Model the fold of this input.
Amino acid sequence: MTERFGLLDPEKIMAILLWATFFCVLFILQKFAWKPILSALKQREDYIRKSLDDADKIKAELAAIEVSKTKILDEAKTQANVIIEQSRKVGNELAAQIEGRAKKNAEEIITSAHQEIEGERERVRNALKKESVQTAVSLAEKILKENLDTEKNRNLINQAMKDV
Done:
């Protein structure tokens, strides 16, 4: 006995229902799920692409900032060196001025000291002259006291005192 079912064989019906269900699910998924999923994936892809572009821009900006930073640091070093060199020059000039003033003051002090020494020498000479004269007069006086007889000796003493 061979059985023949024909067109409505349960296996064929099952296959047709399976394919019909598959296409219905496919249509429903395409209509309601795949478009939102594909649009979400597209948005995600755009977001990632934009993030990568932003990261590249930030890297470029950081490189430019690094170059700018290096340039600013080099300029600052150059300016610092210029300021240091100017300070050295000013310091050397001030030192030379101070040294010049010190030499001038030393010369003035030396000149003043020489003048004081000369003045003191003159004073000492005059004092010595006076003392010498007084000593000579006192000696002459002692000698003449013994020889005071003559008028001539008195005149000589007076004459010597006038000359001194």
Observations:
- The helical segments are 10-146, 151-163.
